[in-house]
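Hi W., the 4'-deoxy-4'-aminopyridoxal-5'-phosphate complex you wanted:
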Amino acid sequence: DAKPNDLESFWMPFTWNREFKRNPMLLASAKGMHYRSVDGRDILDGTAGLWCCNAGHRREKIVQAVQQTVEHLDFAPTFQLGHPLPFELASRVLQMLPPGYDHMFFCNSGSEAVDSALKIALAYHRVRGQAERTRLIGRERGYHGTGFGGISVGGIVKNRMFFGPLINGVDHLPHTHDLSRNAFTRGQPEHGAELADELERICTLHDPSTIAAVIVEPVAGSTGVLIPPQGYLQRLRDICDKHGILLIFDEVITGFGRLGTAFATDYFGVKPDLITCAKGLTNGVIPMGGVIAREGIYDAFTEWADNTGNTIELFHGYTYSGHPVAAAAGLATMEVYKEEGLFERCAELAPYWEDAVHSLKGTRHVIDLRNLGLIAGIELESRPGKVGARAYEAFRRCFDKGLLIRVTGDIIALSPPLIVEKGQIDEMFGTLQSVLNDLD
Ligand code: PMP
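Structure:
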């Protein structure tokens, strides 16, 4: 039998985190803005779990919705049957978007949402007689989960190097960070349109009528908070329109209020054809992801017939698609967001947040600061030959001082629950500053 101290020997957590296995930091409970560690310490959550608990932890309404649903219905095979909750959740989420979106597909994670969106894009062109549109375009340093689709279009070489051959015919746009590197930019840097023109260059390398879709995170989160420069997303939209390419926004992080609007599509005023989401969809309580489709996309599948007039239905879906308990959690989460005006609250807090982020200017090791909505990227100078070591040490020291941050390489990412108070923002940056100043 496993003794508690041995537990970490059996579990295989995120593979990157070897240090965690040697020296695990374990959580026992959570409420509101805080986790409690197994040794009884309160930890201020600077990352909303992993960008998901946007309404804070263990919210009564969501917990109750989960409990009440599971008491009545534990599972419904949406393969053949259904139940009302995912219909309600889809309609609720669609109402939060600008007009023009009419269907939502449910899955269990961001990775599944991305794979589903890529499949929808490929199938959409096929059913419309454009079978040659198979190329996919992602972006360097894009993160789209760990499925084969996601790592193929994702722009992190080490995430895909052991797993080939992957999806064929993928190109990557240059990432959006160089323009603003070490610029301590507040909000969005300038000159995005020129950068987006790289898509035109790819279109001249390959016949644009062979390109199915472009997928980007509106703000790249997991690779260190890379904020698109002004005009970038709109120019991508324009080029996609010109060539009949579908545009996919991966809003797994930006969805559900992180920028102060329901989705980044509102924030940037750019409408993609497909939107992926997860995380904040259920406030992190139950795994759930989703793909939102622009009008006409779902209809293309249902109206499709081959040249002999037979309808051939494409097959896609998961055992747990539209799980009743997850859908109940999602509906309750949408209620909490609305009742407490959390997206508006995020927009109101954003200037205060921005000042707090930039108060770190001049702090030891800090070489760049980036922010948008309630997201921040704090880039540290790497120790020679040891990329990531300094930020990882900052992460552990912050945890010891009662603050949870997230690190990727030597970039610290912050994304607190949208219920964060100004005093807690001050506390976060105060702790971080003292940790960084004490760090070699
Ligand atoms: N896309 C984006 C933009 C993400 O940030 C993430 C997760 N951080 C994913 C996809 C993958 O989501 P999951 O881990 O739920 O599969």
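The mean pLDDT is 93.

W.
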